[in-house]
Write a structure and sequence with these properties.
- The chain is of the alpha/beta class.
- It has 2 domains: 139 residues, Mur-like, catalytic domain (UDP-N-acetylmuramoyl-L-alanine:D-glutamate ligase, 3-Layer(aba) Sandwich), CATH 3.40.1190.10; 143 residues, Protein-Tyrosine Phosphatase, Chain A (Alpha-Beta Complex), CATH 3.90.190.20.
- Helix content is 32%, strand content 26%.
- The chain has 9 helices and 13 strands.
- The chain has a 6-stranded mixed β-sheet with strand order 8-9-13-10-11-12, with helices on both faces.
- Strand 5 and strand 6 form a beta hairpin.
- It is globular, with a radius of gyration of 20 Å.
- The chain starts with a strand and ends with a helix.
- Zinc ion binds next to loops.
Amino acid sequence: MILNADDPLVAQYQRLTGFPAVFYGLAARARLEGDCTQAREGKFCPFCGAPLVFDYCHFSQPGQYHCPGCDFNRPGLLVEALEPEAGEGRVRCRLVFNGQEAELILQVQGLYNLYNAVAAFSAGFHLGLDVPGMLESLGRYRPITGRMEKFNYQGKPVYLNLVKNPVGFNESLAALCAGEGSKDVFVAINDNDADGRDISWLWDVDFEMLGRDHRPYNCFICSGLRGEEMAVRLKYAGVPIKKLIVEPDVTRAIKRTLTGGSGSAYLFSTYTALWTAQRIIKTLASEGVAAR
Ligand SMILES: [Zn+2]
């Protein structure tokens, strides 16, 4: 088994199953946003029930932890990402494996994508694949629809990301906060069957990080079938009402986001609004190029 050492819910499987396992993980970041106060699923030791002690968290549960009640703790690593950094449109780290070291740079947004890449690398390394080849392939990877997919509208970077649960949304917000300059933000929340009918999970997302420092954000345009509830959630998170816009029409809402005058635009969408959003952005982006 190739397991994420930073996630106690995953790391426990070695002991639970007795199967051989190797572990990967991310070391602490120099600049830790987000403390360990976000919604966390792995708060308690899976073996003795004691609250786990976290030295740091990257987002939600993963991080360095140990149990004060028994000997369960973050296992030793086969592959470790040192100095992990998430910037605008890319993530990087110093990868250490078996006494060797290499730089890993990914053209994707969001620290969680570094976890995905390190997991893939660990599996390949364990199987004896060619290391330079793996690093090159990972560096060439471009995200698929809605995974911080990058577009260009009249020279402005535009990011589209699927949101469907608090952990993923929190990490998307971390990527939003890490982006430089002023930003326009679009959020489309639908509650069709494929999205999940219950939207109460929005209250478990740490939107408060936007309310604490809302200066980089020009406005938040809330759309989709439940756009009004989204705006209410942001209001309670401390975002000033004058920065909140409810525009149920997705096309008009996206147009407004892209032409908002900020240096970049971030669009977050639940599943059933994602393809519509992608089509509209692509159309507007190509019109924008034609108009130049
Ligand atoms: Zn324990």
